[in-house]
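4.2 Preliminary Data

To establish feasibility before requesting continued support, the project team ran the inverse folding procedure on a target of 369 residues. The structure was first converted into the token representation described in Section 3, and no sequence information of any kind was made available to the design step. The complete token record follows.
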């Protein structure tokens, strides 16, 4: 009996040791030294900007804490910009990819194919083909995927913004090289943007955005699992099962909705110059440079007044030279709703910029004839 007991004890000791090793494995991998990359910050940026051709499939998590108030008809956008978003992604090319956002009710998927864009609503058992281009649209979950967000932020960064290397770190099993962007001006709420990427392919795998005065990032998005392999074409093509409801919809005429509700927007506003507008939308404008850019949209009278009332319940009512406006401020994003003095549109101004910049721009718009 003593011999049997010792053998059994030895077996259980081996099981316990193996279990302990498996439990400790993630910590051991995280603590393993990450090889440094010899790439300069400029070289790494160039590789990241050129990574749109890199195929991948993986699982990403995004955590955003912007403290945005609840506004009408923007519930899905608010949840994206103030909470945790988990999604699977299959990416073959800029024109062929799929992203599945996991929700409490199931999932909401977007397919970008050679035939156009498709939206899958699991809860509604509905697959919708979207017809038409999207010169202006609301944010969607796929915009938070590390490659898409990183390339957009890098494209916005100005020449005067400071760029430096960060220590490498392991992300989704990749020894990722890092770069930090620090805005040169004081008119943006962004203190720094940190991006890590695979130094071999340039594919961004993690992004962190810091607001001024905060030691913790307001936005973090990273891959938890990643393979840089080409997904099968079937993975990015919708294949509705029997019983799935199908629909086809055309996008609203954004030019008709957003254009013509006020005088032409000026070439300069708030002391900064206007930049190129989306094609066909002359009354939608962006101003500024680098990361200190803000957008201006004229809202139709009824829509604008509804937004103004909703914003007033959560924001601050302020007095400008042209009248009363509403300011909604978060650590990163600032929103100003400014009604035209003479019964025209309500101007929506928003960006990762300081309130003073939007207040000056809003005062000019409100006071314009």
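Position-by-position output of the design step:
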């Amino acid at each position: 009996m003593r011999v049997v007991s010792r053998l059994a004890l030895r077996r259980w000791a081996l099981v316990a040791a193996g279990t302990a090793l498996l439990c400790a494995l993630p910590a051991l991998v995280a603590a393993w030294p990450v090889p440094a990359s010899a790439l300069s910050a400029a070289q790494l940026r160039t590789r990241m900007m050129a990574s749109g051709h890199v195929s991948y499939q993986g699982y990403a998590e995004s955590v955003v804490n912007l403290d945005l108030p609840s506004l009408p008809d923007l519930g899905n956008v608010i949840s994206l910009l103030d909470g945790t978003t988990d999604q699977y992604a299959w990416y073959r090319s800029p024109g062929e990819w799929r992203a599945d956002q996991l929700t409490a009710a199931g999932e909401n998927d977007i397919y970008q194919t050679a035939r156009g864009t498709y939206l899958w609503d699991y809860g509604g058992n509905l697959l919708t083909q979207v017809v038409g281009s999207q010169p202006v649209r609301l944010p969607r979950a796929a915009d938070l995927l590390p490659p898409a967000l990183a390339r957009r932020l890098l494209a916005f960064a100005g020449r005067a913004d400071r760029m430096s290397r960060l220590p490498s770190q392991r992300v989704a099993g990749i020894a990722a090289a890092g770069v930090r962007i620090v805005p040169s001006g004081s008119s943006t709420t962004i203190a720094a943007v940190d991006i890590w990427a695979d130094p071999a392919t340039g594919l961004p795998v993690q992004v962190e955005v810091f607001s001024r005065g905060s030691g913790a990032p307001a936005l973090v998005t990273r891959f938890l699992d990643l393979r840089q392999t080409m997904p099968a074409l079937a993975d990015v093509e919708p294949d509705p099962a029997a019983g799935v409801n199908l629909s086809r919809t055309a996008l609203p005429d954004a030019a008709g909705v957003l254009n013509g509700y006020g005088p032409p927007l000026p070439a300069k506003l708030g002391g900064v110059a206007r930049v190129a507008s989306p094609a066909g939308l002359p009354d939608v404008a962006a101003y500024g440079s680098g990361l200190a850019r803000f957008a201006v949209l004229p809202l139709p009278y009824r829509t604008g007044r509804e937004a103004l009332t909703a914003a007033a319940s959560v924001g601050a009512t302020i007095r400008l030279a042209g009248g009363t406006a509403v300011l909604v401020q978060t650590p990163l994003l600032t929103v100003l709703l400014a009604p035209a003095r003479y019964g025209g549109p309500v101007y929506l101004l928003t960006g990762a910029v300081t309130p003073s910049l939007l207040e000056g721009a809003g005062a000019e718009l409100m006071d314009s004839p």
